[in-house]
Design brief:
By secondary structure, the chain is of the alpha+beta class. It is built from four helices and ten strands. The longest helix has 20 residues, at 2-21. 20% of the residues lie in helices and 25% in strands. Strand 5 and strand 6 form a beta hairpin. Helix 3 (199-206) packs across helix 4. The strands form two sheets. The protein has a five-stranded antiparallel sheet, with no helix packed on it. It has a five-stranded antiparallel sheet with strand order 6-5-8-3-10. Among the domains are: 75-182, Jelly Rolls, CATH 2.60.120.10; 183-219, no CATH class.
Length: 220
């Protein structure tokens, strides 16, 4: 009887391990529509891999992050993303990197990374940063003023922002826990979608007059 119980326990453990090992791969793009004809397949979840024996140092290298980005735009910021498209060796490693430049009083507008947590450090200037928790946690704003050398984390999927509150340019570097974390800038997505979202929907959602919604949509 004891032998039977022991074997049953082993069987249950083996089954649990098999379930734990059988999980879906993390998405690396917005979606991946199934296709039956391989000849028509254009994308994979990630990138095709080079033969490891053909890899070289340039596959893992990039220069130029010392060059400031152009912040002469409406939001006053520039994001230089270092992802798998710029460093092929990042493929499958689950990490990417960005340099963000901010004009005086510029901002990296509220946005979200659906596939990655971000850890950011300020190397020049002073930033006001924060993120908003999910509905179930009360949509609380968690924010902080960061100075040179300070570090802040933005959890995966949550809306967050950075704003330069100083009268001089600011620079930050950030790492993300995905080779393609994705970026959804809230205002662009809501008011600048193609085709536009029905203004009546946005007017009700944001408690705005329809003409204001239509004006905002024209700005994007």
């Amino acid at each position: 009887m004891k032998g039977t119980s022991f074997l049953l326990t082993l069987a249950i453990l083996a089954l649990a391990i098999s379930f734990a090992s059988a999980y879906d791969p993390s998405p690396l793009q917005d979606f991946c529509v199934a296709i039956d004809d391989p000849a028509k397949a254009l994308f994979v979840n990630g990138k095709f891999c080079k033969n490891p024996k053909l890899a070289n140092a340039d596959d893992f290298f990039l220069s130029g992050l010392n060059i400031p980005g152009n912040t002469n735009n409406p939001v006053g910021s520039s994001v230089n993303a270092v992802d798998v498209t710029k460093i092929p060796g990042l493929n499958t490693l689950g990490i990417s990197f960005v340099r963000i430049d901010y004009a005086p009083y510029g901002q990296n507008a509220p946005h979200t990374h659906p596939r990655g947590t971000e850890i950011l450090t300020v190397v020049e200037g002073t930033l006001y940063v924060g993120f908003v928790t999910s509905n179930q946690d009360g949509n609380r704003l968690i924010s902080k003023v960061l100075n040179k050398g300070d570090v802040f984390v933005f959890p995966i999927g949550l809306i967050h922002f950075q704003a330069n509150i100083g009268h001089i340019p600011a620079v930050a570097f950030a790492a993300l826990s995905s080779q393609n974390a994705g970026t959804i800038t809230i205002a662009n997505a809501v008011f600048g979608s193609t085709p536009p979202i029905n203004p009546d929907v946005l007017a009700q959602a944001f408690k705005l007059e329809k003409n204001i919604v239509e004006y905002l949509q024209k700005q994007f």
